[in-house]
Structure to design on (377 residues):
């Protein structure tokens, strides 16, 4: 497989678009991509998902009206089915691409295409004002997923979720996992974007104030002389002086103390029946989005019979009905169970819809036999 990227030389094509051409042994396709590839965060995340077997991994690559998708689906631990749908894009009639390839070969093909594009054709001035295509560590995608050279999930949350797909609590969880120095480097990332916007709007004095304040931050961190309390105090003073209260930094630092998020969490109760969708699958369980919170449905809580792997029952995107069996408000954690909703042991393996249809009845029984006893103790 070979992936070729070519910059648009046609002024009628959307500025910053490229021609993506994918060739296999007996089939090929080419599509004009659009703003989704600028600044390339979506592509980076998509390749990271494929590398870590978070499949199916789908990415829209033509947001201008056609909804063309790159899709990689699981076939085995090594193989994925890779296709592009639909096979019509504007006036460009392409061959429908549907092939089987190894995950590593697919990622390597994209990696080589991107690196060659950066070396041969990439001209930042012809793209966006804020562009990190050449600054992203594309080579890290070639490393095995268990090597800590590529944290694409963390990157997804730090970039505010790749087009807003990560719930507030997902970003909060990632933020709390960062060290204090890492948090301030992320703040610096936002300040760079913010400063560019201020400059573009003619707010030169405000932009200069931010640059003067933050320019020594990386140096202080590198020398081990970073004083978080001083920076926080000074940051508040500068924001107040120049009227810079509503900005990226204020939102970023509020992730770990969001009263709204805590209030939402407090609406959950032990024994409560909830509906959600599968957002991630691991060998030890699945992560379920229940109204903005990622709750864990552990593999041992899926069924009263043994489940070898959660993929026996679930796929990413599946609807699931479960009952809350544990809550930790302070840590923002919720655990779910479907095994406690089974009318008969093993029903989740045979037909989950049977379990969901009887969910209200079984939830009432759980509350009677478990929750009331816990409350009375």
């Amino acid at each position: 497989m070979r992936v070729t990227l070519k910059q648009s030389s046609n002024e009628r094509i959307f500025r910053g678009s490229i021609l993506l051409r994918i060739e296999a042994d007996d089939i090929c396709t080419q599509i004009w991509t659009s703003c989704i590839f600028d600044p390339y965060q979506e592509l980076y995340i998509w390749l990271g998902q494929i590398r870590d077997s978070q499949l199916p991994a789908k990415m829209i690559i033509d947001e201008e009206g056609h909804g063309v998708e790159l899709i990689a689906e699981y076939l085995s631990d090594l193989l994925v089915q890779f296709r592009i749908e639909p096979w019509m894009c504007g006036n460009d009639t392409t061959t429908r691409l549907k092939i089987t390839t190894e995950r590593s070969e697919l990622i390597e093909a994209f990696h080589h295409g991107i690196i060659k594009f950066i070396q041969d054709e990439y001209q930042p001035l012809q793209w966006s004002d804020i562009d990190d295509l050449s600054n992203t560590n594309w080579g890290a995608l070639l490393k095995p997923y268990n090597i800590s050279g590529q944290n694409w999930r963390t990157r997804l949350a730090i970039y505010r979720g790749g087009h807003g797909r990560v719930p507030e609590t997902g970003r909060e969880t990632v933020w709390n996992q960062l060290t204090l120095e890492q948090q301030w480097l992320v703040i610096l990332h936002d300040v760079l974007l913010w400063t560019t916007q201020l400059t573009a709007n003619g707010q030169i004095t405000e932009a200069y104030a931010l640059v003067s304040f933050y320019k020594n931050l990386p140096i202080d961190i590198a020398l081990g002389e970073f004083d978080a309390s001083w920076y926080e105090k000074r940051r508040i003073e500068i924001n107040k002086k120049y009227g810079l209260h509503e900005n990226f930094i204020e939102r970023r630092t509020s992730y770990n103390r969001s009263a709204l998020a805590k209030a939402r969490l407090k609406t959950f109760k032990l024994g409560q029946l909830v509906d959600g969708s599968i957002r991630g699958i691991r060998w030890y369980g699945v992560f379920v989005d229940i109204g903005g919170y990622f709750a864990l449905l552990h593999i041992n809580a899926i069924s009263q019979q043994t489940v070898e792997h959660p993929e026996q029952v679930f796929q990413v995107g599946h609807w699931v009905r479960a009952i809350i069996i544990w809550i930790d408000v302070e840590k923002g954690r919720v655990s779910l169970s479907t095994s406690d909703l089974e009318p008969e042991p093993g029903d989740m393996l045979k037909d989950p819809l049977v379990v969901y249809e009887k969910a209200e009845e079984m939830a009432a029984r759980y509350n009677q036999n478990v929750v009331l006893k816990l409350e009375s103790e």
Remarks:
- Residues 161-169, 246-258 have pLDDT under 50 and may be disordered.
- The radius of gyration is 24 Å.
- The chain has three domains: 2-137, 168-257, 262-376.
- Residues 262-376 form a domain with the OB fold (Dihydrolipoamide Acetyltransferase, E2P) fold (CATH 2.40.50.140).
